[in-house]
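Reading a protein record of the kind used here takes only a little practice. Each token is a code from a learned vocabulary of local backbone shapes. With that in mind, consider the following protein and its fold in token form:
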Amino acid sequence: MLTLTENASTIVKTITLQTTGSEEAGLRISSPAAASTDLSVAVAAAPEASDAVVESGGAHIFIDENAAPVLDDKILDAEVDEAGAVRFAIGEQA
């Protein structure tokens, strides 16, 4: 199952709360085809019926069924640069 770093949890919570005003919202990670590494991220008010849900430190990640196998053994990290842009990185779990 995907895990989040502390930085990623904090940034995801901040983005979703500022965008939706809801603590139940999350980031939805999706893929156009099964097992494709072409992933997209969007703020979502709630998960879709078939999404896997990851909760970490109050942050919610909704993963569509195509992206789930790709992210199963990964860790999500995030950082904010000096200009305020957010960069996400996906790495291997230790």
In short: The longest strand covers residues 74-80. The two ends are 13 Å apart (CA to CA). The helical segments are 6-20, 68-71. The chain has two helices and seven strands.
